[in-house]
Amino acid sequence: MLSLTSMENIEKSSSTLAAPNGHLSPVIPHNGTYKCIVGPKPINKVGDVVLGIVWWHIPKELAGKVVVITTDTDGHCDMTVEIWTGYISVNETEWWVKNAPLIAGSQHGRNPMLVWRMIPGNYTLVFAHWPYSCGCKKFRIEITYNVTILEKGEWYNWMANLQNPNVKIKLSQMPKNVIKKGRGALLINPSDYQRLREWIHTYITDAYFKYGVNISLYVRDFKDIHEVRGFLRRLYFNNSNPIRGAILVGNLPFPIMGNKTYAYYSTRYYEDLDGYFEFNEDGWIEWWNNTNGIEIWVAIIRPPSAFPIESLRWYFNKLHMYYTGLLRVERRALIAVDHSWRGATANLADEVLTVYKSYDNITVMGGLKGEYAIHGMEFMYYLQSGYEITAGWIHGGFSFEAGGGDVFEGKNHEGSRKLKLGSIIFFMSTCGFTNYNESYCHALSFIIGEGVTLVAIGPTKSEGILESWTFFWKLGEGYDVGDSFLFWLNYRFTDDPWTKQSRFYIHSLTHSWGLGVVIYGDPLLRFAGKNLYFEGRILKVVDNQVWTRIVDEGGCPVGSLNISLSMQVNGTWINVGNAITDSNGMARFRVPHLETGVYNASLYFRGNKEYRPALFYAYLFVNCDPEYRKGEIPVVERISKTFEVMRIREKNKRIDLPFLVIEATIEGTAKSVILSYALNGSGRFFKSMFKVDDGKYIAYILGNENTKISYEIIFMDKYLIEYVSGKETLIFRRAKESSWSRLILPGLIIVMLIVLLILASFLQRRMHR
């Protein structure tokens, strides 16, 4: 993990990648100009490469800062600058083929330059020279390099890709306006609409208030995929207000690519609206001509075939709760890359960093170790504490290389469906992760399950998500999931200079990865910026005025925000006006004269560069007060807490994973229950507590020994008015076995041995009679 614990793991483990040989001493990077001898001993297995090596130790004080390394190679033209994990020995000549991950690398050329956002740990700075391709045939040269540490400025390691000539070619082939402004279209058949009417309209209203997105609803019977595509084409090409994307809800036709030997689901046919697709006799797409780029994104919200339409009601309910701040997880990400792909770990963490800006918000399972296999229970351990983004590379069917994948299995993937909290979005290079043909694939199991998952991106077939930096690039700039996905699609399916594959002939079986990658769930979610929440309080009109308050994800008030208020009068939403929050996060609105009664109101903020959009529905009381029946006002009856340890003992995995379980028993009607907590005096975090029984809610907090935890519980009544429990502070202590429990097993063994000895003696005497 890229947390304090993880950094300790990285520092302890990195020296095992290549034992120090006494020839080098680790140095901390400083601004300055330095010299380095490159060569003279070539690397085995490669033979024509010589290296200059510098050991770098990056302390925590440099975390997140950007270092720029420029070189003067004295005219030598085939060189690179690279950063590798761990201290690599000068005498180690076969490390190139080992599993010490390459963290960052420059392009080949004269005077290469490398820009790298530093992560605490131990690394080897490498200057590599190819004497034969350079033409000099010198195996020992001296170069000069300059180190500059930037105090300001935004840089991510994937940005080095933008200087790659092949990347420039791909970017130049993309349409000029890939991401467009415009409305979305929601398509649903009449029978599904009748059963989802209320939920669909709530979603459309939420999307407008929170994101300012207009969604046009189309209730149609579509007999096949060609009718769906024809309808989308008309909405895009023959319309003065063209769509930028489409959301397909319920059981609508789904295109298939492939042939008789292998087939899979794909939405490319619905997204490239002017491309040419060749079909076989089975009605499956065999190849595709992507002539002018891909026009729209398409997202699928449908129930797995193993579950009825009611599962979509559950999905839209939790989507509404998340939109309105009643369902919360901490603003952080989880990176899970299993052993086979450990080289992708640093790149994926860097891509997600584009969204979160700080490694403090990113947990990487296993840190940056080259040798690390994930266990299924370990993955479950992290997910149960809640994340916004989970991205990774895991074998299909969640076959973890350290074992334990069965925790996500059971009938219809019951383990995945019953996961508490989990992740808002899964972005997984896992074969078949979104395979609808498997009626209960993991992606849909998470989406319609008990956890917080609202969107999942992954392949319907055996493949991964290549060039994912383009997706996170746009997600980090504030675009929603759909627009970021569309940008990735257009970049992915240009001419490929590496594989020499043409965008004019994309074969369903032989083309490089990406054809089966789809979006399941809501494409409108955004993840850039900090979270904001409206406080649940009584909105009571006094002298034609009403007040509200907004806080950030740490519970601190936020000023200078432009907040909007709308209210529902006679079934119609009308905008009351806007107000700017003061330094206490308070906004005051003037409202028109209203008749006595209770009105529905919406408070919303459309977002800026620092903060995400926020939405909250409240009840507006005019000349009256909230009314409750007996027992309706929620009250915390009991709070219990236990320290538990998840012990994993399988294959080569021997780890203990401690966590705190907080359980609250609440009497009365609670619309939302949220845990507010701080670790070691940090700012506050919010996460939802999940209902496990009538009136019982739980939450998990991951921690280490001696971690100081302070917490309180926020719960809202039927009018969405907040109540707060008393604050409590405790120190994380692992549950220790009593002296008696430690003696039980050895005692039983001794007793059994005595019994066996007596029995053996008895049998021996009988044999001698």
Short structural summary:
This protein has 769 residues and is an alpha+beta fold. 20% of the residues lie in helices and 33% in strands.
Please tell me what the overall shape is.
Answer: globular
- The amount of beta strand, in percent, is 25-35%
Number of strands: 40
Q: Give the C-alpha Rg.
A: 29 Å
**Quaternary state, please?**
single chain
Q: Please state how the strands of the largest beta sheet are arranged side by side.
A: 10-9-11-16-23-21-20-19-17-18
* Biggest sheet overview: 10 strands, mixed
Low-confidence stretches: 1-22, 736-743
Structural class: alpha+beta
What are the key terms here?
single chain, 769 residues, alpha+beta, five-stranded mixed sheet, globular
